[in-house]
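tool_call predict_complex ligand=adenosine-5'-diphosphate
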Amino acid sequence: MPDKRDTQYLTMKKLKLLLCTIALGLVPWLGMAADAPPPAVAETAAAVTNAVAAVAEAPAAPAADPAATLKIGMDTMWVLLCGALVFWMNAGFACVESGMCQQKNTANILAKNFVVFACASLSYYFIGWGLMFGDGSDWVGTEGIFMLKGEDNSPATGDAYKGVYSSINWTGVPLYAKFFFQLVFAGTAATIVSGAVAERIKFGSFVLFSFVLVAFMYPVTGHWIWGGGFLADMGFYDFAGSTVVHSMGGWAALAGVIVLGPRAGKYLANGKVHPFPGHSLALSTIGVFILWLGWFGFNPGSTMGVGDGSAMAHVFVTTNTAAVAGIISAMITAWLLLGKPDLSMILNGCLAGLVAITAPCAFVSVGASIVIGLIAGVLVVLSVLFFDKMKIDDPVGALSVHLANGVWGTLALGLFADAKISKAVSGFEVTGGMSQLMIQLKGVLAVAAFTFIISFIVWYVLKATIGIRVTAEEEQEGLDIGEHGNEAYPDFVINNK
Amino acid sequence: MPDKRDTQYLTMKKLKLLLCTIALGLVPWLGMAADAPPPAVAETAAAVTNAVAAVAEAPAAPAADPAATLKIGMDTMWVLLCGALVFWMNAGFACVESGMCQQKNTANILAKNFVVFACASLSYYFIGWGLMFGDGSDWVGTEGIFMLKGEDNSPATGDAYKGVYSSINWTGVPLYAKFFFQLVFAGTAATIVSGAVAERIKFGSFVLFSFVLVAFMYPVTGHWIWGGGFLADMGFYDFAGSTVVHSMGGWAALAGVIVLGPRAGKYLANGKVHPFPGHSLALSTIGVFILWLGWFGFNPGSTMGVGDGSAMAHVFVTTNTAAVAGIISAMITAWLLLGKPDLSMILNGCLAGLVAITAPCAFVSVGASIVIGLIAGVLVVLSVLFFDKMKIDDPVGALSVHLANGVWGTLALGLFADAKISKAVSGFEVTGGMSQLMIQLKGVLAVAAFTFIISFIVWYVLKATIGIRVTAEEEQEGLDIGEHGNEAYPDFVINNK
Amino acid sequence: MPDKRDTQYLTMKKLKLLLCTIALGLVPWLGMAADAPPPAVAETAAAVTNAVAAVAEAPAAPAADPAATLKIGMDTMWVLLCGALVFWMNAGFACVESGMCQQKNTANILAKNFVVFACASLSYYFIGWGLMFGDGSDWVGTEGIFMLKGEDNSPATGDAYKGVYSSINWTGVPLYAKFFFQLVFAGTAATIVSGAVAERIKFGSFVLFSFVLVAFMYPVTGHWIWGGGFLADMGFYDFAGSTVVHSMGGWAALAGVIVLGPRAGKYLANGKVHPFPGHSLALSTIGVFILWLGWFGFNPGSTMGVGDGSAMAHVFVTTNTAAVAGIISAMITAWLLLGKPDLSMILNGCLAGLVAITAPCAFVSVGASIVIGLIAGVLVVLSVLFFDKMKIDDPVGALSVHLANGVWGTLALGLFADAKISKAVSGFEVTGGMSQLMIQLKGVLAVAAFTFIISFIVWYVLKATIGIRVTAEEEQEGLDIGEHGNEAYPDFVINNK
Amino acid sequence: MKKIEAVIKPFKLDEVKEALTAIGVLGMTVTEVKGFGRQKGHTEIYRGSEYTVEFLPKIKLELVVADSMTAPAVEAILKAAKTGKIGDGKVFVMPIDNIIRIRTDETGEQAV
Amino acid sequence: MKKIEAVIKPFKLDEVKEALTAIGVLGMTVTEVKGFGRQKGHTEIYRGSEYTVEFLPKIKLELVVADSMTAPAVEAILKAAKTGKIGDGKVFVMPIDNIIRIRTDETGEQAV
Amino acid sequence: MKKIEAVIKPFKLDEVKEALTAIGVLGMTVTEVKGFGRQKGHTEIYRGSEYTVEFLPKIKLELVVADSMTAPAVEAILKAAKTGKIGDGKVFVMPIDNIIRIRTDETGEQAV
Ligand SMILES: Nc1ncnc2c1ncn2[C@@H]1O[C@H](COP(=O)(O)OP(=O)(O)O)[C@@H](O)[C@H]1O
Ligand SMILES: Nc1ncnc2c1ncn2[C@@H]1O[C@H](COP(=O)(O)OP(=O)(O)O)[C@@H](O)[C@H]1O
Ligand SMILES: Nc1ncnc2c1ncn2[C@@H]1O[C@H](COP(=O)(O)OP(=O)(O)O)[C@@H](O)[C@H]1O
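tool_result ok
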């Protein structure tokens, strides 16, 4: 094949094929774009180009009261900047995952992390958002499900709100701000899968799975919890997504890992584990710092409004404290169990604390956040050892971080929530009763069952049709060359193992 | 030379020379600093050191109305934080460019990216800002051109504004906030050049060119468009700089590449292209993520005010959508044309989408932003192939990303702008007429002609005087050792090719 | 040892030991958490889970006036986002320091930078904050010293404030926002030490020292200056911490370097210096960009409130200008003295400018900030050469950056402060008198004496007890394997030197 | 004494090492090399341009053995390194005059 | 059979490889090495301290050829690798007892 | 002429190089290698799993010397490279037929 083509990339035939494809792709959008009414009536843009700023008339209601407009502006700034921080987590996942994989699969993992957010953005725009936040049944949104095209008068809130996305009408920001913030969360869920199935999955199949996950699976369980579905009705709480995002992504990943099987040579005949050390701890460490920073958008941003600042500040501190507690306890656990404070475990400990505090961050005291983080750090180390014992091969520890600690964090809310912090909910520590814990458990199980089963089926269908695993030779040689024709570090001499 | 000096760095003579140089450099600043009236009369600083906060009296007007002060504060916060994000793009360019160059030139490229922003900061402060935003003719600013020393009562806006920077009086933030935000844009334009001329340019000559670009060339064309010059009068629109920043930088780069010639060995006698693969796709990928994040300051920040949040939110979504559409279409194009989804092309696709949406982001619908991004992704791939066919050697694809797509984005505004989104302007898709498109085209051509010709002359003069290209041996050995005496990765064994 | 354990990590005995440790660790927190009253009475959290947002009643005072609530919200957003940027500097330090060390010590340095912030977070929460900001004597805080548990009605300010942290009652944000912002500063001080003692210090001893530094040493000198102590009373100014953070950390580092001694082989018998080049200039450069970005939180964020935006904007510009002046002058100095513009020196020049402008950023004109940065850039180069001449071995230049320029910046305030910029203070350039300079000098000396002496004692005690230096073999082989059992880049072939 | 050099496929290193230690070989030295031979390289793409990487990663093993060990060692290598696919590599046997152990100054077969 | 080892300048590798394949050499093995010789190293700077890098990057080529190919192969290498500047490198020719192709167990000239 | 190959501990390279230049050796070639021998490797940990790294970093020195230089050169290496601890490495001496300097086409002892 290479010799035939050489530098003759552009045979006439291929060019035609390409142009047709693109033309076909464009026509519908052009149509859409043309007849689409602008979703937000108040959409304005200060024209930078000259002094005659061309601002469309602002809608009557908010403009009447300058303080109200200020508040909307401020809340929007907060939501968008926090959304940008969550977007930034994509870079963190790319670094953590590629750093924890072998050098020969680096370009592939980077490409996966990069492309998955593109898929997520489009599929969440076209269909996911509506299924998640559209009005509808207890199970799924049914109104306004395509392209945010449902009626909506955001930033109106509460009773003033008229539209079909009423489950998210409690925050007074424009529809597109809500959308962007929720979109970056959806992207995170898809990215979790990428690490667990790394170093052996076909690029194309992964892209397809991600598309399905963000278009259908994530929005459905998301609807149950954040979209006014049956779990929300039941009193299930998950502030920023320990379950909506993290354990959900974790279950999808677990199904993938099981269908895919371990990397060749990971589990030896003699029962020993043969580790494939990640090719750059520097990359992984930068990645965890990026994620940690991003989490200051993820958790505090989930207030989706500034209020009097106290909730934001509280969440900043609980988020940070759980992370550092996770670092300390993972470090000590690794030191005791493995003899040395293994950096890869310390990094996982930090992420574990962050995942665990995601659900309860706004509902628990700082003291409780320390306990939650400490337990998360121990849990993640034991969980890594456990999954290896089960021969469930997860190159980056995604299951231990996101699944195990997503579950733990969701349950922790049932233990430590305190109505003195937020009136919403109290847990075992305050009430002495198990009722909230049971509700949290039901939520965890419902999401687990749905996500795991559907994921399993989707992975299985992909396996049976286009295949999900690269050939043994490609796995041996590395997916960079096989899937992308790339070499990540061509100027460096590489250890041949 | 090395043997003579050894560790005897500090001969008396050199020390004297150094001290004189510094003294000479300092005297004028000391003078300036001493007699400079503080540019913003209301400049305050909460003294952190003790409870007696020492705040200078606030000016009467804004303080009268707490909501007005809140609004100024909020807008300033927005502009500064977005400015910080745009500043952050320097790190992105450094990563993308160094990742896409050979290991032996890494320190040189990093140094260039690092120093170019320093040059830009000083030259824009001393002269560039005034030429761009000072009142004056249709062609260039003539008032207040040195060091922001013109009269100015920012944050007053519109008619209340009294001063010489009236073209930017539509945003109600302090002068220094305006300056900082515009400065980071100027820095971006200069950085674009650095990638295209990489791996063979002399460090000193590049620094000089950057200085000229930011002090004179960028401000002049910027004045035409954002400083109330003839293109602004004509109704030319460019929201955040597809042309002001990106295609402008691209033309300067193209002139440089032509005067400089290709890297030795890039274009073989048999007509084939010999690629020099970049030394770290990980670095490049991190860089693109950084740039993408920075673009959430670049585009939405160009509102230079929070308003009711809707414009910011709209721009966030169109910016993101164009980027992901660029990723998808570049990936598909590469897959079809080259046989595999080459990561370096996917990365360029993302940047192409971002550059293209920069001009129209606030004026077009989300549907249109998808179309713009899809076309950008195809364009960037074809453009890379085209420039290689023309033997125009651009190691990082800066021309394909910034020039080709800067032009495309500027024209796209003339196609897709929709007064329903922003009252300012409508394009072909709405009006069915070509008038806006023609205006956009004129703007593109005017900037192209000016920038390309002046750049060509500057490059040529540099070539004829101090020289712009390193010796063939230095190019072979790498610029790190030749220009800086540095080795970027001394502990790693490097492939010798 | 390895052969005995093998994959049998979890002997029953170890498991028990671990569980006991954790249990012991948890019991007290559980207790604390249970009886802890929520520190901020107004703490609220918008419940994302369903439409019935569960918001605790807001306290009467602020809610009465929507503009007041808006202001608190806005200031909190500013403080938290700037705090997040300062947090991000941890990533910058990790990159700069690991990039400037040898490849064989990479994991160790990354682990140190990662863990030190965890230690800082906990020790500042448990004890440091109270010692620093609690009401008390001129020397140290004595009220509310544990876990922010003192009385406090933030965000009330000035006379309305009732509580024990009155030295920081000038900013109207919730207590936890104040705490988070101060915490990230404390973390920075501890991180400075890590670079100077790199490549030879025992991991455990470093962790212990960091704990002591953040729990006791940093808060005490911090109390003197920012906590209403004797230096604040004297009229000593330090806007964002040239002395509170940087020179303080520098003195602690200097004591460490002296007690520890140079790396084996650094200073040769013949009087020459044998450099150990850092293993990745790319990593270092990214790190400096990260730090520079973080400084836009560090300095402008130290306003701890938005006000009318002018102070923030002013600080943005002076911070940036000093950094770029440092780059330019360090580059020229290196070019003149060493013959080439060494990238590692350019990077240090940037950091030097940033450290130097930290104290005076809000008090001096932009012109003065250029002078301060220019001098910083020269100073850092000379300082690196000086410390090497003194055989004081600082692998990353932390002493030259943070100590030398922390001192310079603090004094520069006494030279260039101008009451036209901020009413608080004027220096030599305006008054022609030396009084402010003398006050600044006294502050520098007081902090130096206290920090250096206590640090020396603590390092000495650690050396005499558990030891602070790894064995010669471990130093030779690298601390990654010795301290962590890790290899940072296992897939790359490494130069054996 | 003979020096045996073997160029093998990288992922076979562990098996070859074990085969050699099994027959009593106590020391060997390993180098990362690139091989050019009948086995063709692969095509890579970089920003639209294809190029062929003709040098493939291989491992070179060097071991000095007593004369009596030469045949068994070669045998062991051949058996462990064979996949039967092109590119399996070569074994070279060459003469050697002397070998000295640095630590002890022992020479000849003592030093192997 | 002979073993030819050549230490050459890195950027000459492609030319040398082509010269050798042109005369019918089918296989060779390449190693990244550092050379010390008459060609002096260069001075680098790191944070103000200069140091001399005395070991320069070179490429070592190893090929085993039939006796009849020895002279032409050496000739080809000499011609292709020469720049005439100091540091061009060396060619060593040394005896070899045997060569075996792992894939097929062929020995001697068959296996080259 | 003889070819001397020495496998030594990496940090001894400078001392060995100086010892050799002191006795008049003008050129040598150095390779990064991994050694397997009596010196045992070390255990590393990665995400909870231990593994033993059995191949330790070593430096291989190659130098061709005139016959008369062989003994002094070996002597110099032995002295400079010795630490007395296990893993110090080996010196091999082997025959060589010819050596050619690429730059000048000089052969034999002229070319060393
Ligand atoms: N004549 C030779 N001299 C030195 N090395 C050789 C020679 N021929 C082959 N090799 C090495 O052996 C490797 C395998 O050879 P190759 O011809 O690809 O397949 P095979 O060994 O199956 O015939 C090559 O990559 C090269 O490193
Ligand atoms: N005696 C030797 N033994 C082994 N390698 C040598 C010897 N002399 C030179 N070399 C190798 O050849 C390279 C070139 O040698 P050098 O003396 O610098 O130049 P030239 O080959 O032009 O005389 C050296 O870098 C080294 O790798
Ligand atoms: N028979 C051998 N053939 C080739 N290399 C050997 C041989 N024996 C040892 N080596 C090399 O010498 C190094 C040191 O050998 P080792 O047995 O560990 O210690 P010592 O040299 O002290 O006996 C090994 O790491 C290996 O690189």
